[in-house]
């Protein structure tokens, strides 16, 4: 069972208990190409559900697919963005490259994000010794 769903933690937990093989949360309305409108909710699923998360619906750009993969999604499904592109093979290739790059970045471990302020990343400042 591969349920397509709104990215809701409680529903995803119920689907996991029911035996789903993965959950497929929508990023934004299907066919809209609006991107990761539900990003925070998808991140909760990635962090909390012990199933593959396949982001589906609304991904409109390769960069958005890359971002979903960087978040830790197992896969991204895209149709409208590719099917409505001027050059379909080129767009499909761009999505492939973006998805591969996003997964590799996730597996490599993305660098930290500072919530405020700035900090030099020069090796002489000591950050390598932290």
Protein model, in words:
The protein has a two-stranded parallel ribbon with strand order 1-2. The protein is 42% helix and 6% strand. It has 130 residues and is mainly α. The protein has five helices and four strands. Helix 3 (62-71) links the parallel strand 3 and strand 4. Helix 3 (62-71) packs parallel to helix 5 (88-108). The termini are far apart.
Helix and strand sequence: EHEHEHEHH
β-strand number: 4
Instruction: Assign an overall shape.
Output: globular
Radius of gyration: 17 Å
Uncertain segments: none
Instruction: Give the N-to-C terminal Cα separation.
Output: 45 Å
- Tell me roughly what share of residues is in helical segments: 40-55%
Percentage of residues in DSSP E strands: 5-15%
Separate helix tally: 5
Topology:
Layout: E1 4-5, H1 9-17, E2 24-25, H2 39-48, E3 54-55, H3 62-71, E4 75-76, H4 80-83, H5 88-108
Helix pairs in contact: 3-5
How do you describe this structure in short?
Helices cover 42% and strands 6% of the residues. The chain has helices at 9-17, 39-48, 62-71, 80-83, 88-108, and strands at residues 4-5, 24-25, 54-55, 75-76.
List its traits:
two-stranded parallel sheet, 4 strands, 5 helices, 130 residues, single chain, globular, mainly alpha
């Amino acid at each position: 069972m591969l349920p397509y769903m709104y990215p809701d933690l409680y529903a995803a937990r119920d689907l996991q208990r029911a035996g789903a093989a993965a959950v497929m949360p929508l990023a934004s309305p299907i066919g809209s190409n609006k991107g990761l409108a539900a990003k925070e909710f998808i991140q909760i699923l990635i962090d909390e559900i012990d199933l593959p998360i396949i982001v589906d619906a609304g991904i409109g750009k390769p960069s958005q697919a890359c971002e979903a993969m960087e978040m830790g999604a197992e896969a991204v499904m895209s149709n409208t963005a590719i099917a409505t592109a001027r050059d379909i093979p080129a767009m499909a290739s761009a999505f492939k490259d973006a998805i591969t790059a996003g997964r590799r970045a996730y597996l490599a471990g993305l660098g930290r994000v500072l919530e405020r302020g700035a900090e030099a990343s020069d090796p002489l400042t000591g950050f390598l010794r932290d």
